[in-house]
Structures are given as structure tokens and as C-alpha cells.
Design brief:
By secondary structure, the chain is mainly α. The chain is built from 7 helices and 4 strands, in the order βααααβββααα. The protein has a domain of 117 residues: Orthogonal Bundle (Arc Repressor Mutant, subunit A). The protein is globular, with a radius of gyration of 19 Å.
Length: 192
């Protein structure tokens, strides 16, 4: 089953996303499934009132919704789309740039923290931890194809592991990040 996807283009929706607590909430609900504001607050070390407010803001913009009512007064929330993307088709380039900055800094902090503690990991996880980068000469079509292949791999694995009963017992939440971007000017457009 494919992941549910949402392309975010509205500036107001991007502004709603560009907050660290809201990004933490989306990740938490996406990885662990529905949670109440109180449960999420405990995980994020935030107050339940603050988390509830941020969940309602995410809900106003269609990123989360209340799941079926839990036992007693428990009101769990869940993500609406498991995969979010945004880019050049967004309404406001400045808002898009701000969202890129917030999400990229968040992902880089995840990487920094993991690398700072990699020596504490068991040998298999030390071996599995990798930072890989490259600069290649590609056409736009080739870059697009590579991006699609990476996205497909990520989405296939995410869909296969959505059900906790189908995950290997030694599986852990693992951060993967990729980008495909032009790195430098187009040599055909550089003045000679």
C-alpha cells in the first residue's frame, strides 16, 4: 500500500509547518501512530496545553486530525498524509525558503546528534551509519530520475514497515535524508 502524500503549496500551510514543535509532532505521530496531546507532550517534554495548541494549528491546516475517540477522555490525533513535499510550485518563495531552512536545520541536527554518539552504538549500527555525498554531472532529466528512485525506495520501505507486526524485531527508527540539487552555475550561462 502506497504512502498517502500531500504537496504543500499554500503559504499559510507552509507557515503552519515551519515550527519546530509542529515538525516534532508530525514526526512523532508519523512514526508512532495516533497519540493524545498528553501522550505527545510527555514524549516531547512539552506541556500538554502547548502540544494541544500546536496540534489544533496543524489540524486547521489539514496536517493532522483527531483519530477515533480513545477510551475515557483520550482524544488521539493522527497524521493525514504520511509524506509531505513542497517546492517551486508554492505560492510564496520566501515562505518556501523559510520552511526549507527550518526542516534542513532540524535534519542536520539529527545527523549531528547521531554522529556525536555513533561510537556508543552496537557494531552493526556503527557499520550501518553512513554519510555519503557526491557531485555528479547530470542532466535535469537524470537528476529527476535519481530523485524519483530515492523517493520510491524511501516510500516503499516506509509502507512495508508501517504495520508494527511486520517490522523485524531489531528494526529502529532510522533517519534517511537525500537531496538532489544543482550545485553551481549552469556552465552554458557563465559569461566567458
Amino acid at each position: 500500500m502506497a504512502l498517502s502524500r500531500r504537496r504543500v503549496t499554500a503559504a499559510a500551510d507552509m507557515k503552519a509547518l515551519a515550527h519546530p514543535v509542529r515538525l516534532d509532532l508530525l514526526e512523532l505521530l508519523g512514526v508512532h501512530g495516533p497519540m493524545s496531546a498528553t501522550e505527545a507532550a510527555a514524549e516531547l517534554q512539552q506541556s500538554p496545553a502547548n502540544v494541544s495548541w500546536h496540534l489544533h494549528k496543524l489540524g486547521e491546516h489539514g496536517f493532522v486530525r483527531q483519530a477515533t475517540t480513545g477510551p475515557g477522555r483520550r482524544r488521539p490525533w493522527k497524521v493525514v498524509a504520511e509524506s509531505l513535499s513542497w517546492g517551486e510550485d508554492a505560492e510564496d518563495p520566501a515562505t518556501t525558503s523559510a520552511l526549507h531552512d527550518v526542516t534542513l536545520e532540524r535534519e542536520l541536527q539529527t545527523l549531528r546528534t547521531a554522529l556525536a554518539h555513533v561510537s556508543e552504538e552496537p557494531a552493526p549500527w556503527r557499520d550501518a551509519t553512513e554519510v555519503y555525498q557526491s557531485r555528479l554531472w547530470l542532466t535535469a532529466a537524470e537528476a529527476s530520475d535519481i530523485g524519483a528512485q530515492i523517493r520510491q525506495l524511501f516510500e516503499t520501505l516506509a509502507a512495508e514497515r508501517r504495520d508494527p507486526t511486520k517490522r523485524p524485531v531489531d528494526a529502529r527508527v532510522t533517519a534517511l535524508m537525500a537531496w538532489v540539487v544543482p550545485s553551481g552555475p549552469d556552465p552554458r550561462r557563465v559569461p566567458k
